[in-house]
Amino acid sequence: MAATTNHLDFILRLVDQVSAPAAKVGKQLQDVAEVGKTGFVQMGAGVAGVVGAVYTLQQSMAPAIDQQRALGEVESLGVAQDALEQLNRKSLAFSIAYGESAQAFVRSAYDIQSAIAGLTGEQLSAFTNASNVLAKATKADAATVTSYVGTMYGIFKQQADAMGKAEWVENLTGQTALAVQMFKTTGQQMSDAFTAVGANATAAGIGLTEQVAILGTLQATMSGGEAGTKYKAFLAGVGGAQEKLGLQFTDSQGRLLPMLDILDKLKAKFGDTLTVAESDALKQAFGSDEAVSLIKLLMNDTAGLTNSMEQLGKVRGMEQAEKMARAMVDPWARFGALVEAIRITFGQVLLPVLNPLIERLVEAGTTLQRWVVMFPNISRWLGYITLGVLGLVAAAGGLTVLGGLFSVLSVLASPIALVVLGVVALVAAVGAAIIWWDELKAAFGDTAWFQALMTIVTPVVLAFKVWWAVMGLLWEAGKQLWAWGVEFVTWLASFETATSTATAIWEGLLWAFTNLSPFALLGKALKGLIALLNTIPGVEIDTHFADLPTPPAAGEVMDVAERSGAAQRAQQTINAAIPSLSPSRA
To answer: Which of 62, 69, 312, 465 is the most buried (most CB within 10 A)?
Structure first.
């Protein structure tokens, strides 16, 4: 007994000697972890503040920076500074008016300046503005319309230079927009049509208005590219066709007559409609089916072609294109573009102040990079110092993790936690065994340890199966009770309906008995007769005796019955309370 006591006392002393230093170490680790956590929070807040400030500044300046980049691209083509300033103002005004991007406007100027050399500042802004308005009006992208404008300038360069480039491009924009509206085509299709025709019509002396009208009319039944191909084939064969047909299609100066005059001459020779033989003759004269197809289509509606030319000839400026473009403007898009324009304007004011600072930072970074190359040893020691600082940070973080781990082990070492973990582990093991029971039996059924496990787990599995079967039965019983409840509620509803119906019938019968029975009718007739006799002077007969008793209502009948039954029960109670007198006592 004494030996056992000494042994227990030794164990307790050993536990006390070990627990106190361990608790002290844990407390110190927790203190270090708390200090490290506080330091990390402070450093994180500081870094987040710096990064947030830089990010906010960069985001606020982003529209202006992008605008300056776009202007720089145009400047690289040799555009003067005053032209860039005018282009910048025009882009902001366009973006606010139509809810589009100012940066995209400026970048389209790069394509225009590349395609059309020699544009002045005002002309570059006018061409860029016209192209973007036309793109908006015809639902085409700026790149397509910019290419179209460049192509058209190449075709009509002499007319544009004679009229004035800015005025010409505005007329081109207005006529193209009207053509898209009149002929139900698109800016892309018009571009394809003129690209296919090229400069052939212009070289023959045909003006812009007539070309737009012809190609637009053809696009009512075909694509823009096909319309341009047919017009090109007609132009290629018209010179030889006049000799073969014996008709004159040019004026005294050798320029091609207007299309309407050519069609009138063909109508005079062949009539308003062409037979098969006449079509063959035209094919031999013009040299292609495409040219004959164009003639047939235009001959069918010369009045429409005339009207189209007249309307297109009245166009002056961009009014039609601007009207169509404004009709597709979203007010919310305009508001967004306005906010963007304000940011660009503010950013452009601040950029001259910030750019020198950024340049100095870049210079400082360049100097640092040069020093790193020039002094590799210093660079290496700077790297060591950096790694050391990062190592200290990592160590502090590790201590924080270790302190948190010690805190968790104070919780997990408690008896309650151990019991909970044990139960969870047991439930998980049993669940896994139940799910993969057949597989486990097939794999380890012959081993001794699995036989022992089967001895332990089999009752649990059977209990689970029994529990599951009981739950199934209870579920089925619950469903049946629910069905019965629904049927009972349905029966109550039908019973209430029947009761209401019976009550209504009873009240109807009472009313009929009161008002329509022979006695009721006799009483009413008698009262009428007495009332007639009472009109004789000196005669006054009381009519109350003619009133028949009114049958009680259903509720009153029930009340009378209940009162009668109550009276009988009361009398029976009294009789029971009074002792009966026997004959002997009497």
So the answer is: 312
Question: Rounded CA gap, 72 and 106, in Å?
Answer: 10
Angle at 540 between CA 539 and CA 543, to 5 degrees: 135
Task: Summarize pLDDT for 543-565 with one digit per residue, the tens.
Answer: 554 444 444 444 444 454 455 45
> How far apart (Å, rounded) are the C-alpha atoms in residues 210 and 201?
10
Residue among 555, 557, 575 nearest 567 (CA): 575
Alpha helices in 246-375 (DSSP H): 259-270, 276-286, 289-299, 302-313, 319-327, 331-374
- pLDDT per residue as tens digits for the range 382-407: 777 878 777 766 766 666 666 666 66
CA distance 414 to 423: 14
d(CA 571, CA 568) in angstroms, rounded, equals 5
Judge whether 241 and 260 are in contact, CB under 8 Å.
Answer: no
| CA 201 to chain CA centroid, nearest Å | 48
Give which of 193, 310, 219 is closest to 260, Cα–Cα.
310
What is the rounded CA–CA span in Å between residue 429 and residue 406? 28
Length reported for the chain: 586
Give the bridge partners for 256, in sequence order.
250
Query: Cβ neighbours of residue 77 under 8 Å, at least 6 residues apart?
Result: 110, 113, 114
Helices (H) and strands (E) in the chain, counts: 23, 0
**Tokens at 85, concatenated:** 């300033």
pLDDT tens, position by position, 197-207: 988 888 888 88
